[in-house]
Amino acid sequence: MAERITRVNGPLPGPRGAELLKEWHRYEADTTGFQAPVVWDSASGVIVTDVDGNRYIDWTSGVLVTNIGHCHPALVKAVQGAVARLINNYECPTEARVRAARDLVNHLPGHLDRCFFMTTGSEATEACTRIMKRKTGCFEVIGFHGGFHGRTYAGASVGGMTGPKRGYGPTMPGVIRVPYPYPYRSSVGGGDAGLVDYCMTMLEEAVRANSTGSLAGLLVEPYLGAAGFIFPPDGYLPALEAWARQKGILFALDEVQSSYGRTGTMWAMEHENLTPDLVAIGKGIGCGIPTAAIAARREVVGVLGKGEMSSTVGGNPVSSTAVSAILKVMDGENLVANGVKIGAILKKRLLEIQDRSRYLGDVRGRGMVMGLELVTNKTTKEPAPDLTKQLICRCAEYGLLIGSVGIYGNVIRVAPPLVMNEAEAHESLDIMERALLSLQD
Ligand SMILES: Cc1ncc(COP(=O)(O)O)c(C=O)c1O
To answer: Whose CA is nearest to atom 3 of ligand 1?
Structure first.
């Protein structure tokens, strides 16, 4: 029998973890979301070791960040070299920055021929809304119920989650929010096609009722991430793009989390041959080295003149070096294809586990990104956020790190690094199965 990869000795947190958690809350504001009480020490590939020496398999990739695996040796080496040579400059090109821009553009669909480097995904979505406005001279932006584009002003405003907005007063004027398909919870008849038609009709009606005639563009995620890994039916995104083209507005895609092989293609836009005018990129582009970017058509981003877009550490030599090193690893190790292979193993077994679990209402997603929606009752679909928290802790006790998202806080993210192998996939599935079924005891 193969040796177990994971090992958890005793209850969590372990003694050193407990000390650090206590100290953490004494000094840093306690504003982060619910997590299992695990204090990470080191990680390699998909294996995480905590400060008490416990070993886990990671289904989080941070938060869909470390697509090439934690601390990939090639990335570590490249970044160490870059740090020793030149950590920062501002706005001047370096060899690393020129190479990173070339490498990124060469990995993008052909129509996206310019990029610009930033630091966070929020900064990139913020930039998308600004460019939309400058390019069109209009100010209205269409966003989506359940959309998440970060916690900055435009990102939170265009998004359709209450969390980033509640308690902060009026949001950005001109945002028109419309429904996004949520197949598992849809009561619209006619299957996928009916749901797409319904959402397109609601879009048209919302614009008719709310627009002052100043539409600049729409910003949409290829699947709703924070809202619960909600994937729209095929045909919806192309319908949105066609609608935007017909209205003469810009079509911007938030690929902050859906890119870098997550969905089984390098970019989620490739599944249905979307040709967005603007794309926000984050997370996997830096695999933990703070980096983000926008990609655009030259004529779109060209509306900005010299000095009109900058970012203090965006495109610095260290993050630029990371951008190129990561793309090289993705190509060299065929990580997109590995994600497709391992994702299929995960999905198949998760669907089998769903049949045996009283609480696993929905298994959805593609490639290496899936959502497990927990409900107290599969017929009424009552969300089960408390059970979700229990499952997070139970999985950690058994050696698997997971996190939750969702409008109702009841969706487990299945998003391991793309380097996962079959043994790691099966051991982690065994843990998930055991943990889920143990909730029924
Ligand atoms: C789709 C999407 N857009 C934007 C963001 C914001 O990125 P960041 O946290 O790097 O600012 C996130 C973060 O989770 C995201 O998932």
So the answer is: 149
For residue 219 the two structure tokens come to: 């910003």
CATH hierarchy code of domain 15-68+334-438: 3.90.1150.10
pTM over 0.85: yes
Query: Fold match between 15-68+334-438 and 73-332?
Result: no
Rounded-to-integer distance, Cα 271 and Cα 225, Å: 17
Alpha carbon distance 28, 23 (integer Å): 9
**CATH code, residues 73-332:** 3.40.640.10
Q: What is the largest CA-CA distance in the chain?
A: 67
The pick from 269, 283, 411, 413 for probing ligand 1's pocket by mutation, whose C-beta has the most ligand atoms within 8 angstroms, reads 283
Instruction: Domain ranges for the chain, please list them.
Output: 15-68+334-438, 73-332
117, 120, 122, 311, best to mutate for ligand 1 pocket (most atoms within 8 Å of CB): 122
* Integer Cα distance of 234 and 223 in angstroms: 11
Q: What is the pLDDT of residues 223-262, one digit of tens each?
A: 999 999 999 999 999 999 999 999 999 999 999 999 999 9
pLDDT in tens, 329-377: 999 999 999 999 999 999 999 999 999 999 999 999 999 999 999 999 9
Q: How far apart are CA 94 and CA 358, in angstroms?
A: 56
Cα 79 from Cα 23, distance rounded (Å): 30
Ligand 1 residue neighbourhood (C-beta within 6 Å): 63, 120-122, 125, 148-150, 221, 225-226, 254, 256-257, 282
d(CA 372, CA 405): 10
Tokens matching residue 225: 């991430």
